[in-house]
Design goal:
The chain is an alpha/beta fold and about 200 residues long. The protein has one domain (about 5-200): Rossmann fold. About 45% of the residues lie in helices and about 15% in strands. It is built from seven helices and six strands; from the N terminus they run βαβααβαβαβαβα. Strands 3-2-1-4-5-6 form a six-stranded parallel sheet, sandwiched between helices. Strand 5, helix 6 and strand 6 form a beta-alpha-beta unit. It is globular. The chain starts with 5 loop residues before the first strand and ends with a helix.
Length: about 200
């Protein structure tokens, strides 16, 4: 029996790195939120694959080109590797709001593409973001929406309108702590049930 791959989907700005109202336009402007990369390392160590789904309207607005975006993501990858973390894939939407593409969150295209890439059904897959559009995209495809208070999170929480089932945490590290605790409890419960079944036989 093949086991289901474990996957977590993360927004980038405001979840992994500090956000900016003027966009992140260079590697120098990309700064990790303390503890975020270490949290990703913990996910890796517990068998999770990690994908990023990020809207990058700065490309459509001509503030950066794809080459610069790749340079920013290279810094992200190298910074992750420095603490033993690994990002399996980065998906981004380079379109403007008025282009009405399917990939820009809150539309589900990016998340659907991630599910196909990893061969994973998205129902129950954790999606961590700081904006309403992240939560809406997650809900649309059946992911479990996790809102963090970092980045735009506090403002998002105050504005309201979050999809049913949205869970709120201080930051990515606290989300990961909860995910791993829950997974551990499920594993223990499954093992107890398996042992009881064996004894009955």
């Amino acid at each position: 029996m093949q086991t289901q791959k474990k996957l977590v989907i993360l927004d980038r700005d405001g979840v992994i790195n500090f956000d900016s109202d003027e966009y992140i336009k260079s590697p120098a402007e990309w700064r990790a939120i303390p503890g975020s990369l270490e949290a990703i390392a913990r996910l890796n160590q517990n068998g999770y694959q990690v994908a990023i789904a990020t809207n990058q309207q700065a490309v459509a607005r001509g503030l950066i080109d794809v080459r610069m975006l790749n340079a920013i993501h290279q810094k992200l990858h190298l910074s992750a590797l420095a603490v033993g973390a690994h990002i399996n894939a980065i998906f981004f939407c380079p379109h403007a709001v008025d282009e009405f593409c399917d990939c820009r969150k809150p539309r589900p295209g990016m998340l659907t593409a991630i599910g196909k890439r990893f061969g994973v059904g998205l129902k129950g897959v954790p999606m961590v973001g700081d904006a309403l559009r992240d939560m809406q995209a997650a809900f649309e495809v059946g992911c479990s929406p996790y809102l963090v208070r970092t980045g735009k999170g506090e403002k998002t929480l105050q504005t309201g309108g979050l999809p049913p089932g949205t869970q709120v945490f201080n930051n990515l590290a606290s989300v990961v702590e909860q995910l791993l605790q829950t997974a551990h409890l499920v594993s223990e419960t499954t093992e107890v049930a398996r042992s009881a079944l064996i004894q009955k036989r």
